[in-house]
Each structure stands twice: as structure tokens, then as C-alpha cells.
Amino acid sequence: MFRTLHSPAIWAITLAAAGILMVTMGIRQSFGLFIAPIDETTGLGVVAISFALAVGQFTWGAIQPVAGAVADRYGPRPVLLAALLVLAIGCAATPFVGSGFGLVLTLGVLAAAGSGAGSFSVLIGAAAQRLPLESRGAASGVINAGGSFGQFIFAPITQKLIQGIGWMGGLWAMAVAALAAIPLVFRLTASQPAAHPAHESDQGLRHAIVNALQDRSYLLLSAGFFTCGFHIAFLVTHLPGEVNLCGLPASVASWSLAIIGLFNVFGSLYAGHCVSRYRSKYVLAVMYGSRVLLVAMYLLLPRTDWTFYLFAAGLGFTWLATVPPTATIIGKLFGTRYLGTLFGIAMLSHQIGGFLGAWLGGLAIAHFGDFSWMWYADMALAAFAALVNLPIREAPLTQPTAPA
């Protein structure tokens, strides 16, 4: 797949976007590790803290079409700079609040909005507009892998920071990390967007949004993405709680999150390779279907540390590897001119699912004492996502003819 990333300039753009996503996603995907220490210090309760993180899931998704539209209109640089600054402010301010409303404001709104504005919609849109067509699939895989690598790096480091300097110091360290990513914004946006192909007509942003929302394939794609959000938000928020219920140390949760991130690096790269060889809708259907089997296997196995690690490895391979094929389908259907906006709207569907995954997980543990019903719901939704991707309108791939 790397043959399509054939020049230093293409690599510079791709790796800069991947580096920014590494930071924004690494910070965001580590917030679940703060639930227990914040609860112990403030006494707010798991439900209140889960609700703040659930609001963050929705905010992260809601900001993406807005950020994508602003970036499509004014360029990605001001959006990404503001994103990193707001993310840093949200992290730094959280230790100073002591109420559920305060957590909603800092983690649920500020940190989530900053992370979302510096996430997939703007980064993949900015890179796609600066790269040739043949490089976009592989580049989206590398960029997505950057976010996964961030989870691999940040989860164990965050756990060590919480144990060493406390959860407050851990959040302040996250704020510093967000500000440290600012130089990458200038590297990503140093080059001008490539000229749009002649067949990509530009009838305006409003027309592009209306056209997408009336397209059956786009709606089916977004419905499947909803399930992905539910699945990911439930796990990233409540996996530490599940580990605790099993009587295992907190380090099992942090290493499980790290393993998810590590294996999604490989999964993202493989997804970028697959979208150039197979129809993306089939890639998505297989990914969602595999989650049904993995959750079922997890429920049948004894709860040991190695069960969690193996479960994390399997899930990690498809974790956010759904992003490259989803972005590829949107690009095929509507072109790249408003890719940031249209992918952002699909990501909003993803994060509505994320809101429900995080919030309902908190309610489940409070009312039932475990997450059994959440696991069953997760399996049912994953099966639904696998099926709804199959009718998506996507032309067969034309394989290049090998030279004689």
C-alpha cells in the first residue's frame, strides 16, 4: 500500500495529520481511566461522571461537521490551532471543578470539542485535498493509524501519571501534550490544496449536504457508523469498570486500551490497503461482523488478564479501522470538495451512538450491577451494522493491469 505514498511531500502531509490525530485521540481515548480517581476525590458518582463523558462523546461528533464546514470554507489551519488550544483548556480546567455540571463543561464540552475539531473530519479532509487520488486510500489508513498509536502511547502513560502525580497532574500533562502538537498544524497546512478533478462539480456546501442526506447509501453508511460509535464509546469509557468488576488491577484496563490502540495501527494500515483492492462496503461488513464473534467469545471465556488482552487485540484490529473505508465511500459518492463536512455528519451519527454507549453503560452498572445487557446490545448492533452496509451503492473496483 505504501507505493502510492511515493514522495517526501506526500509523506510529510500524511505523517503531520497522523501526528495531530495521535495526540487528540490519545488524550480523548484515555479519559475513561480518570473515572475512578475523580469519583474517589469528588464523590460525584460513576453515573454523573459517565454522563459528562457521554456528553463528550456527542460533542466530539457534533463539532465535526461544523469544524469540517469551517475548514472547507476557510482552510484547516485556524480550525486545528483552535482545536488544540480548546482541548488544552478543557484538560487543564477539569481539576478546578467539583460538580457534575463542571465536568460536563470541561470534559464534556471543551475537551471534547477541541479533540473533535482536531480529529478525522478536518484532518482527513485536509490531507485528501492536498494529495493525489491514488494516495488517498493509503494516506487515510496511515492517518487513522496515528490515532490508534496515540491510544497505545497515551493509555499506559496516563495510568502511570495518575498513579505517580495524581489525576489532576495527569490532566495537566494532557494539556501540555495538546499544545506540543501545534507545530504539526503548520506542517500539514504548508502546501496548498490540489486542484479538484473536473468531474467534481461544486454547487455549494448546502447543496452537497442536502444531496448526501437524500442519498440512501449515505444514510445506510451513517447507520452502520452509529453502531461503531456505540461500541467504541462503551468500551473506552467502561472497560476499566469491567476490569474492576472482575477483580483485576487497574493496569489490566490501561494495557488493554493500549493493546487496542496498537492492534488498530495494524488494522488501520490493513484497511487502507483493503480499500484499494476490495469494495469498501464489504470491508466494513466484515469488520462489524467480526465484533459479534469477538464479544460472544469474550462472554464465554473466563475473566483473566489474558482474556482481556486477547479480546483487546481482536477488537483493536477493527477498532477505528472503519474510518478509511467509510471516508473512501463518501469520497466516491460525493468527491473530496466537501469531504470534511460530509464525513463530519457521518461522524455525528457515530457519536450519537457514542453518547448512548457511554451513558447507558453508566446506567447499566448503577441499576444492574454489571454490563451484561450492554454486551448483548453491542452484539445485536454490530450484526445490524454488518447487514446495512451490504446494500450501499459502490461501483466494483477496477484493478490496474499489470505491465507486460
Short structural summary:
This protein is mainly α and 404 residues long. It has helices at 8-28, 35-42, 46-74, 76-93, 100-117, 120-128, 133-180, 182-188, 205-213, 216-245, 250-274, 280-300, 305-318, 323-334, 339-368, 372-388.
Radius of gyration: 20 Å
SS content category: mainly alpha
Order of helices and strands: HHHHHHHHHHHHHHHH
Kindly report the name of the CATH homologous superfamily. MFS general substrate transporter like domains
- Architecture, CATH level 2? Up-down Bundle
Number of spatially distinct domains: 1
- Number of helices in the DSSP assignment: 16
What can you tell me about this protein's structure?
The protein is an all-alpha fold and 404 residues long. It has one domain (2-192, 204-388): Growth Hormone, Chain: A (Up-down Bundle), CATH 1.20.1250. The chain is built from 16 helices and no strands. It has helices at 8-28, 35-42, 46-74, 76-93, 100-117, 120-128, 133-180, 182-188, 205-213, 216-245, 250-274, 280-300, 305-318, 323-334, 339-368, 372-388. The longest helix is centred in the middle third of the chain and has 48 residues, at 133-180. The chain is globular, with a radius of gyration of 20 Å. The chain starts with 7 loop residues before the first helix and ends in a 16-residue tail after the last helix. Residues 399-404 have low confidence and may be disordered.
Main attributes of the structure:
404 residues, mainly alpha, Growth Hormone, Chain: A, 0% strand, globular, disordered C terminus
